[in-house]
Design brief:
5 helices, mainly alpha, two-stranded antiparallel sheet, 143 residues, 74% helix
């Protein structure tokens, strides 16, 4: 049985916790407005991306393989986000949710690399866009 490095366990828990907390403002906004993905999806995406990168950083230690894991995570977020987009009567709906899913993936990756300033800025800007973006968006009913 391998020895468990508890300082690494706490560090990883800390990192994943930060990714979770920084995804919450976006998740709560989406949940409150009942816009598809919400408090389950956004934090899960963020912590999963963070976890994938933490494992890759530990296993591959800065090699090209680590970068390939990040590319795979980024592509996977695009794939998941694509599932949130629905076309109806010539209109595409869910593109904001798809972008939000991708954004929370970027938050998770940023946290994994201890780039908290990037993750924090992404969280704040993402929340502000979702919270106040509808005021700027052209409404079809007003046309």
């Amino acid at each position: 049985m391998p020895d468990i490095n508890f300082s690494l366990v706490w560090f990883n828990l800390y990192q994943i916790g930060i990714a979770f907390v920084l995804a919450l403002p976006i998740a709560l906004n989406r949940e409150y407005l009942t816009r598809g993905a919400g408090v389950r999806t956004y934090p899960l995406v963020s912590i999963a991306c963070c976890a994938f990168m933490l494992v890759a950083m530990d296993v591959y230690e800065g090699s090209d393989a680590e970068a390939r894991v990040m590319y795979g995570v980024i592509t996977g977020m695009g794939f998941i986000g694509g599932g949130a987009i629905v076309k109806d009567s010539g209109r595409a709906m869910g593109t904001a949710n798809a972008a939000g899913i991708w954004l929370t993936g970027a938050i998770g990756i940023s946290v994994a690399y201890s780039r908290y300033e990037i993750a924090l800025v992404l969280s704040i800007i993402g929340f502000l866009i979702f919270q106040f973006g509808n005021f700027l968006k052209k409404q079809e009913d007003q046309a």
